[in-house]
Amino acid sequence: MTDLLQLLVSGLASGSIYGALALAIVFVFRSTGVVNFSQGELAMISTFVTLGLYKAGAPLVIAIIGSMVISFVLGAAIERVLIRPVQGRSEHAPSIITLGLFLGLSGIAGWIWGLDPETFPGMFPERSLEVGSVRLSYTSLGIIAVLLATVAVLYVFFERTRLGLMMKAAASNPATSRLAGVPVSRLLMCGWGVASAVGALAGALIAQSVYVSPSMMVAVIIYALAAAALGGLSSPVGAVVGGWIIGVAEAVVSDRVGFIGGDLKIVVPLVIIFAVLLVKPTGLFGAKEVSRV
Amino acid sequence: MTLLDVQGLSAGYGDVGVLHDLDFQIADGGVVALLGPNGAGKTTLLKSLSGLLSRRSGRAELEGDDLMSMHPEATARHGMAHVPEGRGTLTDLSVEDNLRVGGYLRSSSEVQETMKVCFDYFPVLADRRTQQAGNLSGGEQQMLAISRGLMLRPRLMLLDEPSLGLAPNLTRQLFAALGQINHEQSVAMLIVEQNASLALDLASTAYVLESGRIVLAGTADDIKGDTSLRKAYLGY
Ligand SMILES: Nc1ncnc2c1ncn2[C@@H]1O[C@H](COP(=O)(O)OP(=O)(O)O)[C@@H](O)[C@H]1O
Ligand SMILES: [Mg+2]
Asked: Between the N and C ends of chain A, which has fewer C-beta atoms within 10 Å?
């Protein structure tokens, strides 16, 4: 029983990592209606930036915050320069651009930083908390705590602030929002910026267990997209719960089901998504389809 | 006093011209009915005034400010509230949040105040304030769309077929509310409406649009009083 609890916590920790990146995906989708397939690669660039600031002598916390600011600008610039011109021309054009970015950004990262994996500094103490006979690592607990704090901040932002409301409005009905004077295009840019900043934070969390390299996000982004889809694509809480379900299922299944080893476990999120979407097509926390009379 | 002065307005989509050389005026606080068959270009006209449609030429001035160079955000700042065809509500936001968005350009005390005014005109919205707009009935959504426009505290409202899909008695109630709003809030209105007789009761002036041209202009009373004009242009 005890190691099942341990499995649960490590599953929640890796699930929190998927959830953190899924949050960024949800943020873009909610504010612009685009699925950003390059969110992971953007977060990878952000992680290199964080590492660069850290190596240049900045304390880790400052390096992460600095990278979040730089990532905000980078995300906003990508929206303005690459997404804006194709938005509205066809429904899928922006998402296809983000697929192109996915390839482009990893190429650029390899060119700038090389392909050799680098280690990222630990954010949390390397000890464990002993609860009875269960050992919970501070890193796992810390990752879960940072994610929960991020969700809380985003929740308050969307539900309690004017800027958050206007962002929801801009995403929900750009034309009507503009007619009310809401600066929709600036808010969409802002949405990409905030998502990239969240991605930078996710990158630091991911780098607690993965080496920093241009390919660090390749597997993670699939889990994160799965988590976001599971949660309904537009719900921050859904993204986190989706991440947790996938993380825990992955940990338990790969540990307990003999024939599913490390290689086959990537199938786990697919099976879960398939099962959930079959039963509830809008995802676990997706907005229910509103019928227009 | 002329509030809106339009001279030689033309507009269209891509290469296709829809509106051809329109001249018309709206007086300060006046109500103008814009009538005409489907496809005449009524919606296109409202869109080119509010800035939703940018392929337009000619002159259109709101109290001397040139509308032709403005985006929708700017026409809103100049006091124009366009309530688009088919209920421009934010369906996944609550009624109250819809109104808050409508009051984006106003201070929070003005928002509170104007929200009360909207709830006075449409009490049912007060009862539904926390409900998602998409779950409202068609009539309630139209009231919300109009209220969203009111939150701007506009000088001029452009209303595109506010009665679309509503039952006759609801339509009459809605028009009664519009008349009240016009008087009490001193808002001028340009109303597109299929029910010509209802629109002519509310409006002081009317224009009939056909194939992108104004084919009839006059006071509402003159048009109502002239059976042959009504038969020829409005079909009743
Ligand atoms: N988005 C559009 N693209 C191209 N043509 C359009 C578009 N919207 C309307 N039209 C055309 O413009 C003309 C006028 O349409 P509209 O202004 O909607 O008329 P009304 O509101 O009077 O029914 C019609 O011939 C219509 O087909
Ligand atoms: Mg129309």
From this structure: N
